């Protein structure tokens, strides 16, 4: 017979926090991680002998974190039992995941089993994103700017700025449409795409990453210069190259006419061969 228990989702804060919260900073400006309590309540009698096991469910399989009255793996040395629950000290991103508490008890009715599934999410503030902005571009070409950071949990969203002003997100209705936006900004992936870049897109760009945890982070400002394609300059260069090639061809033809490329006959030796 199985007794079902409701799982609960625990959210642990790992970020720069206001003084009112319980996280503190040491002198090196690092901070102590908070603790997480994974609760596993049961209705068995206190007189019943219990066997308790905790497991972590991951994509690569299920592994023990508490087995045979001992913690294993990453939790060894920084976790302790609270009755049938677990207190984890100094939680990190690696502690995020789904845990399962399994309790078995012997009774007059036989072996009784119960389990609870708990999801632990460790929230981490974003780090400074890496931004890629081309320094120059030609009008009419496709240009993409990118912004990414990988430390934030949950994943960060991204906002692009031009000359210090937040760019509007392109939508079917609203201000972005009225402003005749020529770009597409993806806040999830951090890309800013210009399908047909113009000189008006010249400016100083930077990106901001945020996930609601701690302070948002910005990359350094980078300038993108958009110039018109110099058609007259290209034509002039092509004509110049054609004239140079024609001059070289005429020079070769003249040299051949004058016999400069004709091989001379070998002169008789000054000294006859010795016989």
UniProtKB/TrEMBL annotation:
It is a single-pass type I membrane protein. One of its GO terms (cellular component) is plasma membrane. It comes from the Eukaryota. GO terms for biological process: leukocyte cell-cell adhesion. SUPFAM superfamilies: Immunoglobulin. Transmembrane segments: none annotated. The keyword Metal-binding does not apply. InterPro entries: Ig-like_dom (IPR007110), Ig-like_dom_sf (IPR036179), Ig-like_fold (IPR013783), Ig_sub (IPR003599), Ig_sub2 (IPR003598), Ig_V-set (IPR013106), JAM2 (IPR042625). It is found in: Cell junction, Tight junction; Cell membrane. Pfam families: Ig_3, V-set. Keywords: Cell junction, Cell membrane, Disulfide bond, Immunoglobulin domain, Membrane, Signal, Tight junction, Transmembrane, Transmembrane helix. Belongs to the immunoglobulin superfamily. This is Uncharacterized protein.
